[in-house]
Each structure stands twice: as structure tokens, then as C-alpha cells.
């Protein structure tokens, strides 16, 4: 089985192909919790500037400097350091919709400024956010959500960027560098670069490798999209496994609703036969739950945290 690739090049809501593309995006999200989209948003030069220059420069800093990437937003962690057995580390840039965010982030590493870093990573983030929001809009439209509800939802979004590095897997045979999980987000867009790793589990339990093609990004449904759609879109179950045993970089852009707004099941998914399956949640409280004791132990954190008792 393969995950379909949907071509979004040159597409906007007035294009003749829009409705068919919405249907294809939605079908893949419903079937697999994810969709691969083809795009021309990231030029080869931008890709090289970010992955061949900015990322290696960033990860070369000493750990004491890296740890200064703390989140001003309590629930979203800053720098995630390596832990024994997993050579994975990741930075977090909050509120990437605001121009200052990259400037503030790069100041940690280059107090005298590094416009090349902020401009290139910022430019890539902007493109990824546009694609991610488009996929979110298309999914809601494909599921029949009313235009005004979808527009209000898209208006409530904020985005964070994760810049991640994976060392060569310690267990060369297994190659697993990030264990199986769902994301606590609404949607996560993943930009891979040259080295494979991202794998998605299908509903029959088998694994599909998502190739790191330069002209695609992968959008994953997170737990909060399951909540909002009353279970119509199940969150993608995925992991990172690099069997070629190479070092790997990836960039992730996650969409959230702003912290003060609770995420609820949308009206469009509720009727007499389909009562809400989830209670509303505040995103920061849900994150806290996912990344502390109770939620870490749960195999179905969304259900356990806010599922309506039957
Ligand atoms: O690196 C990737 O391709 C995906 C990483 C991931 O799933 C995560 O950080 O949640
Ligand atoms: Fe993930």
C-alpha cells in the first residue's frame, strides 16, 4: 500500500482542480491520518541554504548554548536534548507567524545577528505554514465543514517550528530513532531532506516509508484534529527509522490554536446520531498531560484525557 501524493502546484480555491484535490487530501487524511503533497514552494537554493548550512551550523553549538532555547510558552518545550539510547535533539521556535521569532531565536546563537540564518529558515517556515494551512483548509472543506467555521478555525491558528537532528542510529539493525507516537498537534507538516526516516502505520498495522522527496512535504493529523473532527480523522501513527544509518535533519511545522482558545468538536460533526465524543481541551493543558506522567503511560491519550464517557 502507498500513500497517495496530491499535487498542490498552482492550486487555489478558484482553480478548476480544487474540489478534486480537496477530495484526495481528505480521503488520504481519513484513511491514513496523513497526506503527501507535491509543491514548488521551496526552491533547491533555499533547501540547500537551510539544510546544508543553517542546520549543521546550529547543531554544532555546545549544549549549554542550545539549552538557552527555552519556551516562553510553558507548555511547549524549548530545546530537547539527547537522552541515553536516542541520538535525537530538537529546537523549538514558537509563534513562527511573527517576524521577530527567528530573529529572537537566532540571537541565542549569534548575538551580533545572523540575517542569513533568520531569513532562510524564516522563508522556509513561511512556505510550510502556507502549505500546512492549505491542507487543513482542504481537509475541512472535504469533510463538509461550513466555510465560516473553517475560516474562523484557520484564523485561530498559531504555528511552531521544530528543527530536529538525528544522529546515526545506535542500533544499526533496528534503525529506530524516534519511537512510535501520535503528535498532540492539530496538523504537523514534515520536511525531510535527502535521508529517509519517516514511517506511517496503516490501519492494518503495516508500516509505510515516506520517501524524502525534495518536492513534497507530509502533513500529519495530530490528536487535536481527531478531537475537532469528532473522530473522523484519526491521528497519524508514525515513527522515525533510518535503516541506511545516516545522520538526518528534519523540519516540522505544527499548527495549534492559540492557548487561550479551547479546542472543541466542530458543530459540523455533531448531530442526533453523532454526539460529541470529546470534551473541549486547552492545548497547553493537553500538552502538559501528554508529556508528563499520566499521558506518557497512556496508549490512547486523547480518549483518556477528554473522551466523553459512554
Ligand atoms: O523527523 C521526522 O520525520 C518526524 C519527527 C516526528 O514525528 C516528531 O518529531 O514528532
Ligand atoms: Fe511526530
Per-chain topology:
Blueprint: E1 5-7, H1 18-32, E2 34-38, H2 44-59, H3 63-66, E3 88-93, H4 100-109, H5 115-142, H6 147-155, E4 157-166, E5 176-181, E6 187-192, E7 198-201, E8 207-209, E9 216-221, H7 223-228, E10 238-241, E11 248-257, E12 262-263, E13 281-282, H8 283-290, H9 293-297, H10 301-306
Parallel strand pairs: 1-2
Antiparallel strand pairs: 2-9, 3-4, 4-11, 5-10, 6-9, 6-11, 7-8, 7-10, 12-13
Bound molecules: 2-oxoglutaric acid (AKG) and fe (ii) ion.
In summary, what is this structure?
Keywords: Dioxygenase, Iron, Metal-binding, Oxidoreductase. The protein is an alpha+beta fold and 310 residues long. 35% of the residues lie in helices and 22% in strands.
Structure overview:
This protein is of the alpha+beta class and 310 residues long. 35% of the residues lie in helices and 22% in strands. The longest helix is centred in the middle third of the chain and has 28 residues, at 115-142. The chain binds 2-oxoglutaric acid and fe (ii) ion. Fe (ii) ion (FE2) is lined by residues 181, 183, 188, 238. Fe (ii) ion binds next to loops.
Amino acid at each position: 500500500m502507498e500513500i497517495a501524493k496530491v499535487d498542490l502546484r498552482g492550486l487555489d480555491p478558484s482553480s478548476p482542480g480544487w474540489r478534486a484535490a480537496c477530495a484526495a487530501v481528505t480521503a488520504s487524511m481519513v484513511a491514513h491520518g496523513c497526506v503527501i503533497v507535491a509543491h514548488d514552494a521551496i526552491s533547491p537554493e533555499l533547501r540547500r541554504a537551510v539544510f546544508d548550512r543553517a542546520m549543521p551550523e546550529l547543531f554544532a553549538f555546545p549544549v549549554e548554548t542550545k539549552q538557552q532555547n527555552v519556551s516562553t510558552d510553558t507548555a511547549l518545550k524549548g530545546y530537547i536534548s539527547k537522552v541515553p539510547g536516542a541520538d535525537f535533539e530538537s529546537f523549538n521556535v514558537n509563534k513562527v507567524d511573527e517576524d521577530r521569532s527567528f530573529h529572537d531565536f537566532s540571537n541565542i546563537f549569534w548575538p551580533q545577528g545572523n540575517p542569513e540564518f533568520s531569513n532562510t529558515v524564516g522563508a522556509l517556515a513561511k512556505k510550510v505554514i502556507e502549505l500546512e494551512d492549505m491542507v487543513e483548509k482542504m481537509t475541512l472543506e472535504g469533510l463538509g465543514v461550513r466555510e465560516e467555521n473553517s475560516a474562523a478555525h484557520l484564523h485561530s491558528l498559531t504555528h511552531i517550528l521544530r528543527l530536529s537532528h538525528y544522529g546515526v542510529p545506535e542500533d544499526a539493525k533496528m534503525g529506530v530513532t524516534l519511537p512510535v507516537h501520535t503528535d498532540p498537534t492539530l496538523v504537523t507538516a514534515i520536511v525531510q531532506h535527502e535521508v529517509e526516516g519517516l514511517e506511517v502505520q496503516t490501519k492494518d498495522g503495516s508500516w509505510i516509508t515516506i520517501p524524502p522527496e525534495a518536492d513534497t512535504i507530509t502533513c500529519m493529523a495530530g490528536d487535536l484534529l481527531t478531537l475537532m473532527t469528532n473522530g473522523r480523522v484519526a491521528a497519524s501513527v508514525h515513527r522515525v527509522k533510518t535503516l541506511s544509518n545516516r545522520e538526518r535533519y528534519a523540519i516540522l511545522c505544527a499548527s495549534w490554536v492559540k492557548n487561550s482558545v479551547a479546542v472543541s468538536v466542530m458543530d459540523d460533526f455533531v448531530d442526533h446520531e453523532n454526539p460529541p465524543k470529546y470534551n473541549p481541551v486547552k492545548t497547553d493543558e493537553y500538552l502538559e498531560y501528554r508529556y508528563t506522567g499520566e499521558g506518557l503511560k497512556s496508549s490512547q491519550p486523547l480518549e483518556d484525557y477528554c473522551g466523553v464517557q459512554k
